[in-house]
Sequence to fold (308 residues):
Amino acid sequence: MESRIDRIKKQLHNANYKLTPQREATVRVLLEHEEAHLSAEDVYLLVKEKAPEIGLATVYRTLELLTELKVVDKINFGDGVSRFDLRQEGAAHFHHHLVCIECGAVDEIQEDLLGDVEQIVEDRWNFKIKDHRLTFHGICWRCSDEGQEEAERT
Amino acid sequence: MESRIDRIKKQLHNANYKLTPQREATVRVLLEHEEAHLSAEDVYLLVKEKAPEIGLATVYRTLELLTELKVVDKINFGDGVSRFDLRQEGAAHFHHHLVCIECGAVDEIQEDLLGDVEQIVEDRWNFKIKDHRLTFHGICWRCSDEGQEEAERT
DNA sequence: TTTCTTGCAAAGAGTTTGCAGCTTC
DNA sequence: GAAGCTGCAAACTCTTTGCAAGAAA
Fold:
């Protein structure tokens, strides 16, 4: 069976790029931290653990490349850094995020909840949708549970 | 009748801030360019036309203040700059955006299209929604009207 | 060889901060 | 006169770029 990294390798080759050791190390870090929403700096530090000679610029260049090939999505939660998310294979659209304003946790919603909404937007605004970004800000289940337990305990 | 700027002035006073000439000039620029999604630099240049002595830092500080008071929303379309949007008065939620990947235009959708979706998210993920950000990326009506040949050539 | 890729350091862009002077109450 | 606010310049953070050296086809 073909592994995920093999398929990414093919995608690179198809676009005339090589899967160098540095690029492979970067991709592996992304695969090993799929739901972590890592910043470039995060990725750099993690790659460095295995391949200490790598430079930050290479990580940036690799992430840019992967974004271009739509292997990852570059996202921005408004905290000043770009974060990178592996795109689900075969996913037509980008997944959604739940950002907790209490603890900062970011959860993912893989389901596409926007089918109807997109239809409306395309028809009513005559806008051909290629992708979307949907983020909810609020209180996650962990934080609202915590409050409750604490309330119950006392 | 009470003007919009009066209401903003009150909001400031309630939070123990003053509406200084510099702050007023900044707010006026925002009011005069409501759908423009101005960056801090844009605002600075526009304010400068009327009040040339103003400093960029003051504009940044004012925008930060207005964001804190929820008079404006700080948004980010992934192009490296923060943009500032006056919040509709009385709007429970933030409006949505259509970003054209051809020409870069940003249109607004004031309607709240997410009622059903939010209900699902709150129930299924046990997440208390406070706000949301929804942006569609695609081709706007202007570009699909005029740029058809170019799109087909590639 | 020729082309692509890398690491380093420097540069760049956007934003924030320290501080002395100025307003306002 | 204390507190808040401003303009300026310097500092800071994140990201990109120039370049010489290295790896791969």
